[in-house]
Amino acid sequence: MSGILFPRRELEDFLDGGRNAIPSNIQREAAAIVEAVRLGGEDALKQLVTRFDGRDAGESIYLGPNVLQQALAAMPAEDRARLERIAGRIEVFAQAQRESLLPVDLAVPGGTVGHRIDPVQAAGCYAPGGRYPLPSSVLMTAITARAAGVASVWVASPQPAAITLAAAAVAGADGVLAAGGAHAIAALAFGVGPVPASDVVVGPGNLYVTAAKQLIAGDVAIDMLAGPSELLVIADGNADPAWIAADLLAQAEHDPEAIPILLSLDAELIAEVEWALQSQLETLPTADTARKALAKGGSVVCSDVSQAARLSDAIAPEHLQLSMTNAEKIVGRFNHYGALFIGEHSAEVFGDYGVGPNHVLPTAGTARSRGGLSVLDFLRIRTWVRMDESTASTKMTEDSAWLARQEGLEAHARAAECR
Question: Is 24-222 a CATH 3.40.50.1980 domain?
């Protein structure tokens, strides 16, 4: 094999430090678009939708519950059942996450302190719609927001397909904004027409979407800045090369910029995987896209699991798949990844399409500092203090006043002592 399709690489090839870089021209264009929507509101948004999304000027960009329910009702019964079944698994997992989070009520000298966990009021969920419709992104974001208890949930997607609208109905969204790109992110953030200003904006997208999310982050919360999607497969000599090739192609067909990587403990396996890639590409409808992504990815031969774990942690991939016979036993050796798939039967595509956990995940090494989208992105942990009349008889007043005076803040000290 030539290795041109899926090149042999060194680790440094995947650590160029620019995996999340946004070109300066896109940053400037996105900034102008965001500012136009901030200042011009609905009129500016409609102009941008006509310009960028190809929607007729007189066509409504606000698709309410009736439109969403109509799209759902028009689905073939079997397709609707599948969509609802997938949505149900995502909802069950998100609800389990929410129920695992508990309030705190703690006695302290002179009173009680604690925290409560409450949802934000409004969430904006972005679902890409450029190359393919992505109803899965609607389900992952909007269902998770509802499970967290968010009262207002709007989805934005450019030229939303019927299945995207149906997914929004199943997810319980209040409506769909038929807009994409930076102008959609700005509209979700600042509010337009019936779409309220969001407290948090989430969801993956292209470079314009990412640039816009970076720009609005000072006004509202965001989940993360998404870069090209990544899959890192670690395999031993017992792995099925055809399965690995299928997994790599599933990642590669996302986008020409996607990054599929194989770390192999067996040099012969790499050649077998490349052969399988060539064979499967012959009948793959998305082969053109996949070939470009494969060329950006590649393979690395590792001497043992310890080296593979070090390389994996250095990359901190979005998806980490352990296609190994002893995968369960080595999980603890991996520290940085967005989502983990344990064992050869745990294909990454199951995570993409609704086995339960969220598929909106950190990329470009940011898995070192955060996990994937969850109910936590829609929740606020707020603390409270309740002191009783016996406070003065405790050391609390003395300690508070002492620390205040250490900082030179006499009024703070007196406010404590006057209690």
Answer: yes
Rounded average pLDDT over 212-229: 95
Most confident of 106-110, 130-134, 209-213: 209-213
Task: Give the contacts of 193 (CB within 8 A, at least 6 positions apart).
Answer: 42, 61, 62
The yes-or-no verdict on residue 238 having pLDDT over 60 is yes
Return the CATH superfamily for domain 228-363. Answer: Nitrogenase molybdenum iron protein domain (3.40.50.1980)
pLDDT of residue 18: 56
The answer to whether 24-222 and 228-363 have equal CATH topology is yes
Residue 228 is classified by DSSP as S
Mean pLDDT in residue range 63-78: 98
- Predicted confidence (pLDDT) at residue 390 exceeds the cutoff of 80: no
The 10 Å CB-count burial string (b at 16+, else e) for 339-375 is bbbeebeebbeebbbbbbbbbbbbbbbbbeeebbbbb
Would you list the domain boundaries of the chain? Answer: 24-222, 228-363, 388-417
Are the C-beta atoms of residues 110 and 387 closer than 8 Å to each other? yes
Output the pLDDT for position 392: 58
Catalytic positions, please? Answer: 318-319
CA distance 372 to 400: 39
The residue behind tokens 């992110």 is: 185
Residue type, 19: R
